[in-house]
Amino acid sequence: MLNVNGRVDLPRTRWQGQGGESDYPLDRLLDSAEATISVGVRQLACELGINGRSFDRSAQTLKNTAQIVISEEAFRQVVECEGKQVLKLSAAEELETGWSAGECKTLTPAGAEVTRVYASADGVLVPTTTQAEKDKRRQTVRQKRKQLPRAARRRLARLAAVKKGSDQRYKQVYLTAFYDQTMDHRLVGVTREKQQGLGKLLKREAARIHLRAAAERVGVVDGAVCLRRHLEVLPLDEVLLDFYHLSEHVGGAGKATFAKPEEAEEWIGQSLHVVRHEGYEPFFEKLLDWRGPLRGGKRKMAQGLINYVAQRQEMIGYERCDEHGWDVGSGPMESMCGVTTDRIKGRGRRWDLDNAEAIMALEALYQSNLWSAYWDKAFTNYN
User: Fold this and answer.
1) Which of 15, 185, 206, 267 could pair with 180 as two cysteines, CB 3.0-4.6 Å apart?
2) What is the pLDDT of residue 383?
């Protein structure tokens, strides 16, 4: 755990030097009074931890590169502890972003200089360890212990208490992103709290970058109603439906209702051109004309698209985007969803939700260009 000096308390680790492995713990070499590990080693461990495929391999890499031997469990504790510290500092707004919305300058199509910031949010599913899986593992360990000789069992320590598992195999984690036109400035946040936590995170991150200082403030989301509702509490000029997600719905409905593929492609292209350059009303009228002659399952498919579009009318204003030069896609947000969960997802991986959030927080720190600032602060506190 992190102690008051900003250091990480760890189980015993070993140092391997030119003379081979020593029985003295690495922590004792660094600080004989406290079982701690240096900031430099913590930083290296975190870099390896979020970029590796497993903590075991990352710990082995640390041994090979720095000649520091840390068990897989201790390595995991270092990385996850540091991620939780990142979350703590972010919540307390103790880590300066180094930029504000008023500095995010770009040019309009007319050539005028303007400050502009985009805001987005999305949810990702994280594989979690369920209570049933934990109970099964504990039962397996107990069965193996029973098979040992009685003398060996007496020497074993009592099994530690197990953290409560999840009630579902996958749990939702929310991500937020604020960025400028060129993505040179960006701030990525993460929370495992439910929608109320997402609203708090959006407001806090907006305050950290002084969002109101930007002349143009644009929200872009994938169309989820809850995400739009949370973005609308921010001082945004527009909240747009990601054009790619809309095109997926239009394309799916078009291919399902036209007999010939070439007819479907032509209708899809025309419909997307209308909504992109002419606006919502002409697009909606085109959808109604398309639905008219359809019957049965095809008409039901058409009505589904019409309902989807009607519920998001206020988010479909792409013709205004051309006037300002605004992006109509949430590609940066989708990219952040991918990179922050890269270490989390994979075959056989299961997490306690708070630990998964901690790993994602470290990647979000890096994507926010705050990695160096965080470790500089850690070095200052350490000394």
Assistant:
1) 185
2) 63
- pLDDT value at residue 236: 96
Instruction: Tell me the average pLDDT of the chain.
Output: 88
DSSP code for 96: -
Asked if 80 contacts 355 with a C-beta cutoff of 8 angstroms, the reply is yes
Q: Among candidates 225, 207, 240, which has minimal Cα distance to 318?
A: 240
CA dist., res. 14 & res. 29, Å (int): 10
Q: Is 123 exposed, middle or buried (0-12, 13-18, 19+ CB in 10 A)?
A: middle
**Long-range Cβ contacts of 306-312 (<8 Å, 24+ apart):** 308/223, 308/249, 309/246, 309/249, 309/283, 309/284, 310/284, 311/225, 312/223, 312/228, 312/241
- pTM for the full model? 0.86
Q: What gap in Å lies between CA 75 and CA 70, rounded to an integer?
A: 6
Output the DSSP codes for 227-256.
HHHHHTTS--SEEEEPHHHHHHHHHHHHHH
Angle at 218 between CA 111 and CA 116, to 5 degrees: 40
341-344: long-range contacts, CB 8 A cutoff, minimum separation 24: 341/124, 341/126, 343/49, 343/50, 343/51, 343/52, 344/126, 344/127
